[in-house]
Write a structure and sequence with these properties.
This protein is an all-alpha fold. Helix 4 crosses helix 9, helix 6 crosses helix 13 and helix 13 packs across helix 14. The radius of gyration is 22 Å and the shape is globular.
Length: 340
């Protein structure tokens, strides 16, 4: 009688094993073995797939660490529980991973895209985009495009095409959209995350009350603490029905109505507009200073061949909220309009 050797309790699952496991994913999934590769070719990792390497490089980057002191909605927020750009990113990554697993898509690629999607944000959130736009030739400085520039040029990580493409097209305003279904998942994960946690912040800052939530949101998705799961399920069910990453039209319509209300009552409310004014003033004056005084830029920052205006914009875009305010106070004194 043949005796079977007992299987060891732990075994190594190297890159080959992991890529073989990807063959069991949905037909639409992006397989790491089929990646279009990196700008600079490099040897494969022994243990990790290319998308897992991307994920780790993003997590350990300086740019990722800076997200902890960048605005989500409320600049320079007091208290310990306000959402920052970092906590938002973590939420997006978790939602993206959950959706990818449910649909049999590539979890590692979805996670990498979600971790990198906001890495190009300027200080003070979307207000920073408004302040920086006059200084770029396109007339529209956008955090997604800057994220790609950051990851390719300013703090190069040599990521795969698929991860960079997902970062490039993670917002709905970008056309063409992402080239992978995992990139499309990031679009939905981002919107689900910010609509739910920004509501929590709005409650905390008395910017919105529970009674102001549209009835349709509660009828379709339940109480706010259920929204992440309910919205995610709306994506999973419709994607399975249609064969492409999507959300059922009724759920999408309800979510869009709520998003419109959030812009009116929270994102573009009078208190936020007041904050926007001093934040724009801080960024504008810092950019002007570094354009006129390029010698004040760190000697090892960016590309020396870039014009002073490009280098100044890149440098200020990398500031956290606190770093921007600290630099302003050091150079110019008190911030006009800043509370306190």
């Amino acid at each position: 009688m043949k005796r079977h050797r007992p299987q060891p309790p732990l075994g190594i699952r190297d890159r080959i094993h992991r890529q073989q496991a990807e063959t069991a994913l949905s037909p639409a999934a992006t397989r790491s073995a089929d990646s279009r590769g990196r700008y600079l070719p490099e040897p494969d990792d022994d243990l990790l797939t290319p998308f897992q390497v991307d994920r780790d490089r993003l997590l350990f980057s300086k740019a990722f660490r800076r997200l902890r002191n960048k605005t989500q909605v409320f600049p320079d927020p007091p208290g310990d529980h306000v959402i920052t750009r970092l906590t938002h990113t973590i939420h997006v990554a978790q939602i993206g991973r959950s959706l990818a697993v449910a649909l049999g898509l590539n979890e590692s690629l979805a996670e990498a895209i979600c971790l990198g999607h906001d890495i190009g944000h300027s200080p003070f959130g979307h207000v920073g985009e408004e302040a920086l736009s006059p200084y770029v030739q396109e007339g529209d400085w956008h955090h997604a495009a800057h994220g790609v520039r950051l990851l390719n040029t300013l703090e190069p990580l040599n990521l795969t095409f698929e991860t960079l493409d997902g970062v490039r097209a993670h917002t709905w305003r970008i056309d063409p959209g992402p080239s992978t279904p995992e990139g499309m998942l990031c679009r939905f994960a981002d919107r689900i995350a910010y609509l739910t946690h920004d509501l929590d912040d709005a409650f905390r800052h008395n910017a919105l009350s529970r009674s102001e939530i549209p009835a349709a949101m509660v009828e379709r998705f339940g109480e706010p603490q259920q929204w992440v799961s309910a919205m995610g399920r709306a994506v999973v069910d419709q994607s399975a029905r249609s064969g492409k990453v999507s959300m059922d039209p009724e759920a999408l319509s309800v979510m869009t109505e709520f998003r419109t209300m959030m812009f009116e009552r929270v994102y573009e409310s009078p208190p936020r507009i007041k904050e926007h004014k001093w934040a724009v003033a801080v960024i504008t004056r810092l950019v002007e200073h570094f354009i006129r005084n390029p010698e004040d830029l760190p000697s090892d920052f960016g590309l020396e061949s870039d014009p002073p205006q490009v280098r100044a914009v890149d440098y200020v875009a990398g500031f956290t909220d606190r770093a921007a305010m600290s630099a302003y106070r050091r150079l110019f004194g008190d911030i006009p309009g800043f509370p306190g």
